[in-house]
Every structure is written in C-alpha cells, then in structure tokens.
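Study this one:
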Amino acid sequence: GRAFLGGGDMAVAASGQAIPAKGEAEPLDRCIAEKVVEVVDDPEAQRSLQTLAAGLIDGVVALDHSERPLTMIVLPMLAWLAGDMERADTLFDEASASEDPWVRAAVPLARAQWAENIGDVEQMREHFEAALVAFRDLGELWEITAALTGLGGIAALDSDLEPAPAVLGEAMATLSLRH
C-alpha cells in the first residue's frame, strides 16, 4: 500500500523527517507530500510558497509517474498552493484517468481534504464517501481510516452524533489492523 498523508502526519511533516515503513510511501514521496501539506500562516511565506509551487509544477509534470504515482496527486496540490484552481482541477481530472487504481482512489480523498480547507461540508462528504468505496475495493487500510475519520468528523459537524461513534470506531478498528 501507499500512504496518503493527512492531518495525522503533520507531526512528521513538522519534523522534516521521512520515515520509511513497510507498505508506506517511499521516503522521497513522503518528503514531497509532507512539505505540500504543511500549513503556512505567514502571508509573505504563503506568497513565497505560491511562487515555489508554481515553479515546481512543470518539473513534477515531467517526472515518470509510473515510478512515482504519488506525484499525480501532488501535482494538483501544488496547483492549489500556487493559487491555480483551474489547473488543479485539470490535473485531478488527469489523475482520475490514471491506469493506477490507487491514484484514481486518492483523487477524491485529496479533493475531500481541499473541501475541508475551504469549508465545503457537502463536497467533503461526497469525496470522503467516494474515497472510502474506492479504497475499500483496494483494501488500503490507511486510506480507509482517513476516509472514515473524515466522515466521522462530518457527522459530528452535522451534530449527528449517533453515527459518529460508529464511524470513528470503525476507523480505529481499521487502523488497528495495520499493526
């Protein structure tokens, strides 16, 4: 399996370390993803990050994605960071057509996380549900857990507290299968 990084990996991202683990993303892929998801609060740093992201896109586009399929998910994130939402959507559409089923499954998970960033709960729900189905088909436990955690959070946001414990409990049980 491959690791799709979400909020739980922020501590690793903050440390600047790439931790290789059996069944996880390659260290280079983790470093790329960790740096892409770091939160920058300083407006000047955000502008610098946007400039850097815009410059990285063409270089990452040129990579052999068959060797590094995670780059197909990183590309639209770089476009988001660069402020180019149209290009991000185009790159996500390209990733959705990938021959790699993991890449296709990762697209809605990434879109759900973006919807969370902009506060669009309905898009979060739609994309987390699609990601859950796709990653269940692949048996990818890490990503299943990420989608379930997202859906549990949405249930809590909706003040629909009845399903939240069940969904989050399933996430915990799925995560425990990894060990």
In short: The radius of gyration is 16 Å.
